[in-house]
Design goal:
By secondary structure, the protein is of the alpha+beta class. The chain has 2 domains: about 1-90, 2-Layer Sandwich (Alpha-Beta Plaits); about 105-300. The protein has 13 helices and 4 strands.
Length: about 325
Amino acid sequence: MLHLRIITPSDRTAAVVEVIENTVGTTHLAVLPGAARLPPGDIVLCDVAREAGDELLRGLRALGIDKDGSIAVENIDLSLSKRAEDAEEEAPGEGADAVLWEQLSEATHEESTLTVTYAAFMVLATMIAACGVVLDNAILIVGAMAVGPEFGPLAGVSTALVQRAPKLAARSLFALLVGFAVAIAATTVFSLCMDALGLFHQDMLDNPRPNTSFIWKPDPFSFVVALLAGVAGTLSLTSAKSGALVGVAISVTTVPAGANAAVALSYGEMGQMWGSAEQLLVNLGGIMLAGVLTLYGQKLLWHTQRDRWRRAGKA
């Protein structure tokens, strides 16, 4: 269940209440006239089944409540209410399969903005991965994958393409490209400093590295794994039962490929650098493609379930 707190201009309270009452899956409706001060107006509270949340939010936005008032949405972890159970039964589909597009857009907007913190995580993750590829240490590679924040912009691009939001797509691509450029540049300098300290050597890069050689040797499996990781990441982002996204793209080599490209560049190993760049592009493209296809699939599945429910209700 979701809990909505709505601040509405008083002249639209009746319309808001009507939208809520006409949305199947809503309950616990309460109206507090004149309770809001900034902005002034009434406060309307209600609970709604997750699978009906997107329809209700669209109805409220059609009234302009998001512009002249406020719509706050919270997940309800526990609701001891027979009315809530009935509302979830009445709503079409399953809550775990429902996608709240407004919530998804907001989440990807926050995660796909280029900030100092985002850039810092990118740089740190790439430096950790650089140590991993030089030492041929798979544990460090896994750690770098978990620290890397690049899935946020990748999800932002996928969401923007499905939602036809060019501003979100541009912001996400900017964060992705600039983030990797800064991380690779900083890691190249880091590699040179480690070499000056005697901790990195070119021989370490040239030696056989069975645990990490896949990073600069892309093959068809690189694209397949990127697709699978992209689907998993997108489902984790949209599912009501998802956990944290940390490590969700653990099997793909985006940050490690950028790190190997940086170290190879610092030693003039152009073959490894281009191989790493190819691996990076293959994985970025695979994740974004999988994200778009997954979101389109969820959208189609949800529309199909809702149409079946409506036809069953009319029968």
